[in-house]
Structure formats: C-alpha cells, structure tokens
Task: inverse folding
C-alpha cells in the first residue's frame, strides 16, 4: 500500500504512523531523513539541496520530489511505503503525482486525522516533561503521580517552548494555510480517508484507520 498520513500538529500522527508501518510492513519515508542522507552521501541531488540548506532557504519542491523518486525505487518500497512530512502543499502534491506517474506509481490512500483546533491546543499545551529522565506527561490525560513531580522523583516538570498556546496557534494557522488544502485535493482524487479523532484515544483512532483502509 502506498500511503500518505496527514494531520495538524498534536493530532497524533507519530503514534499512528508507527503502528501503521508495523501493521503494513512498509517503510516510513521521511523527507528530512532523505535530505540528510543525500547531503551526507554527496549525491547530485544532495549537493543541489545543500546549496539551499546552507543559505537557510527551503529546498525547492522539484529537488525534494527527485529525492522521493530515488527513494521509492529502492527494494524495501516494492510492497509499498508511507510518506512522512511530504507533501505539505498542493503544489508539492502535484509535483509528487507527476513524479510517481513517471515511475508507473500512484498513491493508494491518504489518511487525514481530523481534530478541532481547540482540542489540539489543549492536547499540546497540557504536555509536560521531566528535565531529569525525559518522561512525558499530560496534565489532563496522563498526569504525573504528584503535582509537578515525576515518577523518578524529580520535581519541576517543564513545558517545551513551542508548546505554549501562542506558538501552537501560530503552527495551526500555518497548517490550515499551507497543508489543509491537501484534504480537498486528495478528496478530488478519490483517495482520501477522513478519520474523526475528536475526543478519541490513540487506540480508537487506530481502529478507525484500519477500518477505513480495510485492514
């Protein structure tokens, strides 16, 4: 199965992605990992990408799609793959579709995890971590054993800087502006599976995804 997983920050994509690749037995293709690998190996596309990265610029869509095309012809992708972090915009999706078509491939399913903004804000801003052992808690869903104290005994649980409400809302605006239009794009392609995840735990969401994919 050739799959894309979409969803806003805090939707739980990481948790669902891990379970999906285990269930399907396909690789998770991360564009970030591909860029770093191509740069390290000094491939032609890696050298091209490095010019933009060194200048602090975004790597052009055509370069990223070129890396994706190279990656998808490797042996471990023969039975399918799951794209992680790409595409992020409709133009990227169009580049991707064109690149895959040249290889006789197409995306089978796009899973979009749908969660309301206010729930996402609550999910993300409620996260706390232990500065000593790294354990992660949530003030509402998985609180620490004692207020502001980790199970390892360390006190002073911390909130990541990008988990504050202002930053979270800025990230959601960026998602709605840049990435959410992909939902309509893939709906038109007839491959979209919308997963309603409001108020659902990860197990319930995964069951919905499996049902939607016929697994």
Result:
């Amino acid at each position: 199965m050739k799959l894309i997983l979409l969803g806003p920050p805090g939707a739980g994509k990481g948790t669902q992605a891990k379970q999906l690749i285990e269930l399907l037995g396909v690789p998770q293709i991360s564009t970030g990992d591909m860029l770093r690998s191509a740069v390290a190996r000094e491939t032609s596309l890696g050298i091209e990408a490095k010019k933009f990265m060194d200048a602090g610029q975004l790597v052009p869509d055509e370069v990223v799609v070129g890396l994706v095309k190279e990656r998808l012809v490797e042996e471990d992708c023969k039975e399918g793959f799951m794209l992680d972090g790409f595409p992020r915009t409709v133009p990227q999706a169009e580049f991707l579709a064109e690149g895959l078509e040249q290889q006789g491939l197409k995306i089978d399913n796009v899973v979009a995890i749908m969660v309301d903004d206010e729930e996402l804000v609550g999910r993300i801003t409620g996260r706390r971590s232990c500065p000593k052992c790294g354990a992660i808690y949530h003030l509402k869903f998985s609180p620490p054993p004692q207020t502001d104290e980790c199970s390892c005994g360390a006190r002073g649980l911390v909130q990541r800087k990008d988990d504050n409400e202002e930053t979270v809302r800025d990230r959601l605006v960026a998602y709605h502006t840049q990435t959410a239009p992909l939902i309509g794009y893939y709906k038109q392609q007839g491959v979209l599976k919308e997963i309603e995840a409001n108020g659902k735990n990860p197990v319930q969401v995964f069951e919905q995804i499996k049902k939607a994919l016929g697994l």
